[in-house]
Amino acid sequence: MKTMNKTLTTTLLALTAGFAFGHEGIELGPNKGRILEFSNDETMHGEIVEKEGKLQIALLDKDMKSVKIEAQTLTATAGQRNSPTKLEVTVQNDAFTLAAPADGDWLILQYKASADAKAITARLHYNTSKCEPCSNPEWRCGCGEQQAK
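Now predict its structure.
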């Protein structure tokens, strides 16, 4: 009986730890923006930061160095699954720029390295509520990354 209680307790602790460190897996870039994967082999990333109510997505290589936008394209869709909205994406100052989605919406990004390349899809839950430990919005919280170090 003691062994079963110990096993049950250990299992419950492991499950609740997962909720406590729910931000695990979110990587922050050189500008403290959220990193999304734009390749199948980790050679291209997008770093998302928010400025003046808009999202700016800079391209970064495998070494997290800035990449100039030339032939690359990005399309964005936001909203709920039953009513998605296509967002206008422009290029400004070597970053893709788009309106920030509504709080709680999903942002679906489709990146193409060139016109004939296969699209890479990245998803972001745009949750703007503040994370207690770091005071960043949840969509950009790096607490799990810091605790893992």
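The CA atoms of residues 130 and 137 lie 4 Å apart.
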